[in-house]
Write a structure and sequence with these properties.
single chain; 111 residues; six-stranded mixed sheet; 0% helix
Length: 111
């Protein structure tokens, strides 16, 4: 199970950290992803992090503005967002590797 939190209404240029807590599987053995879905658009992969945090990947549009991180001791994965733009408005989902397990999402609105 994955449960996200931290979504909010933020002004353009602002920042926000969204979080996800995992349970029911061996978190430390799984890459984790953040995926978002903007209103009226398809799902869009945003970022990924390796099991040991040594490797991260980002959507080009968020590089330099977003940072993915994790805490294996707490079964947590985070997405630190910054310099937010209106086009970052979306529901943000925490997703286990293989894309078979998704959280319910947390709404980030930039306006």
């Amino acid at each position: 199970q994955l449960v996200e939190s931290g979504g909010a209404l933020v002004q353009p240029g602002g920042s926000l950290r969204v979080s996800c807590v995992a349970s029911g599987f061996v978190f430390s053995s799984n890459w984790m992803n953040w995926v978002r879905r903007a209103p009226g658009k398809d799902f869009e992969w945003v970022a990924a992090i390796s099991c040991d945090s040594r490797i991260t990947y980002y959507l080009e549009a968020v590089k330099g503005r977003f940072t993915i991180s994790r805490d294996n001791a707490q079964n947590m994965v985070y997405l630190e967002t910054g310099s937010l733009k209106e086009e970052d408005t979306a529901v943000y989902y925490c997703v286990r590797e293989g894309f078979g397990t998704w959280g319910q999402g947390t709404q980030v609105t930039v306006s």
